[in-house]
Amino acid sequence: MSTFLYKIGKTAYNKPWHFIIAWVAILGIVGALIGINGIHTSSEMKIKGTEAQKVLDQLAKELPEASGGQASVVFTAPQGERLDTPERIAAVMKSINDVYGIDYVINPAEIAAAAGATATDAAQSGAAAGGAQDTQDAQGANTDQTSAAQQAPYGPLIVDGNPVPGVMISSDGNVALFQFQFTVQQMSLPQEVIDSVVDDVTAVEQANLGIKALPSDTLVGKPAIGATEGIGIVVAAVVLFITLGSVVAAGLPLVTALLGVGISVGGAYSLSKFIPMTDITPALAMMVGLAVGIDYSLFIVNRQRRMIMDQGLSAREAASRAVGTAGSAVFFAGLTVIIALCGMVVMNIDFLTAMALVAAASVFINVLVALTLLPALLGLVGERICSDKARQKNKEQEKVARQGTAHRWANGVVKRRWLVILGVIVILGTAAIPAADMKLGMPSGDTANLDTAARQSYDAISAGFGEGFNSPLLLVAEPANSSDKVTPELLGKLVQDIQQHDDVAVVSPMGINQTGDIGIISVIPKSGPTDEATNNLVQELRDHDSSISQNNKVTLGVTGFTAINIDMSAKLAEVFPIYIGIILILSLIILLLVFRSIIVPVKATIGFLLSILATFGVTTAVFQWGWLHDLFGFDTGGPLLSFMPIMVSGILYGLAMDYQVFLVSSMREAYVHGHKGTSSVIDGYKQASRVVVAAAVIMVSVFAGFILTEDIMLKQIGFALTIGILIDAFFVRMALVPAIMAVFGDKAWGMPKWLDRILPNLDVEGDKLIAELNKSTSAKDNKDIKAKPSRAH
């Protein structure tokens, strides 16, 4: 591998424009494809096979008009005033009618008229459930729930003697809730439809009547990638300059990383017409691509400069050797990240698969860019990569390098190895304690920032109508015996039984399909979308052995936005241990091949487990418990993003192994070259620690930039990766690894002879390459000596 990469590096250095033009052409093709195909992403995150998704798919087939997503908007009047004045009602009604006129939005009055029902029937159905389906079969079956609704602190909005479909108003007249239904789930809606809805309802504020329109969290926009991510790039540039000591050298990793990200993220967008992907997928690819792209180029440029200044090589030869040696480590480090990400495919969750593959493609492209474009750019720079001033400064620093910070730290860790091991375990073990209380979910209005429309809408609904109106459920009732039918009487009795549940606020029949195979019921819980009580309610309604199902001889399916999120979180929590097991096994195999050691892979895997547990512990304390929430720009703690643990584990594992490869490969190189015992640990640490620390700081800077975004998904992922890199790089790799290596000494590199024979030698450190180069150089020198004329006479 190292010999092959050496040849690639030399070719790229000698013919830089061939490689530069090729990569620029690829970027141009990607841009052209985006122009042709456009950008098609959505917020859809569904998992096939979950109970809620099965019911939704069934509804889409049996009763399409009932399978669409629901949304809501709250209209509020100033404190102490009423909305139902003639002027305000006129303004509100205009917005409502405009929304009902939008494509993809169901108008309950039109549906009711087409079905032969009255406007009143449609209004009752719409007001309670946020939509209107065929209700003629359910008339006369809702006496009890109507009576209950009359006693509630809210009721339908009456205009000109008729209820307004889909609108309720609080008893004090201060808040009105407008619930409506789409023909498809929100995740499948074109963004322009959501924008039109928001524009139409917020237009009421232009009437200057003191009305405020608050769209719910289901109408939020796409996550934005804004200027905050640029802060991380600026910090990375400063770190590169400090590490490499040259503006030219520092600029190369930034250029290659930005081009790699441009191609990978642009490529994802260009294929989004054919491959469904969520809004967060390209942002995640950018996050990972920037971090690894900068780091991988840094490792190669740093190795080239060290060879120039320490060994006196020409820039051409040093660049070729750097690609062959450090490039080998980059290749296997990148391969580790790619394998960890692709491991998510095994779980067969579509949106996670797309995220993983796009992020893996971003890493792959950045590895190729570092191994081909970077040496080409080094060829253009030539000997200027190390100025005369830098070479002179290096000679002066060599005299004190032996007693430098890295040497003193490594020596101190080696001497106090047991104290360091115990200290790291205690610190990270303590940090991991909150992870035992980790709860998974999806972002909702109750955890949005207080100054957002989503949070204000959630709070207004909770105050005026009850928290459960933020978490409506849709039930599908089927006869337990396939020969039976759902009748209006059965549907009415079912509604009455469900109404008796302690956590149910309102139950409304929504209709029966034409064949009588299924009945539709809307249920409003008393609890919120992320409350444990709502989760329990969903599970109890689904229980085939429950009194509700048994007494009515039906099976109940539960769906809706809230139920979908509950099922998604449960499924992801279920597969998370499986995924961790997969990547731990992969870790042992890959590191066994790279380091040809038993102890090193086991130690690295244990270190990763400590890192990931501590990462989730700190993330739970901050985002779920709300510790230091003001510092990180959010107001209310809540469940952690359901797919965050899996995604962060995959990315963090790969990046942690990057540091493991670069740090421990230097220790092995020192061992192979004659340093024995703790001497190899200290020497290897001294050689690699500076660049590993710089790489970690760069990754932390890039990821930390995403903490400043408004989108809570990117904020949580950015924070988890930031704290994960800090923990893994500085506690595990910089402290725990050298301490454990010192404990085992030369035994750390031991391997059974039978296993050593069957394992391929990957030569990550480039020993074979260096030996071949030295051999060819020696042969050339001998040839030159023989060719000289004898002066013996």
TrEMBL record:
* Organism, as annotated: Paenibacillus catalpae
Q: Which InterPro entries match?
A: MMPL_dom (IPR004869), Mycobact_MmpL (IPR050545), SSD (IPR000731)
Q: Cell membrane: present as a keyword of the record?
A: yes
User: Its membrane topology, per UniProt?
Assistant: Multi-pass membrane protein
Q: What protein am I looking at?
A: Putative drug exporter of the RND superfamily
Segments for region (Disordered): 128-155
Write out the entry's keywords from A to Z: Cell membrane, Membrane, Transmembrane, Transmembrane helix
Bias (Low complexity) ranges: 128-146
Localization recorded for this chain is:
Cell membrane
Q: Which residues cross the membrane?
A: 20-39, 231-263, 283-301, 322-346, 352-381, 418-436, 576-595, 607-628, 640-667, 688-707, 719-744
Q: What domain of life does the native source organism fall in? A: Bacteria
Q: Which GO terms describe its cellular component?
A: plasma membrane
